[in-house]
Amino acid sequence: AFTRREFPLLGGTSVTYFQDVYDHVIRVTDTIDGYRDILSTIIDVHLTVVSNDLNQSVRTLTVASIILMTLALIAGLYGMNFRYIPGLDWRFGYVGALAGMAIIAVALGWTFRRLRWW
Question: How many CA atoms lie less than 13 Å away from 35 in the CB half-sphere?
Answer without folding.
Answer: 6
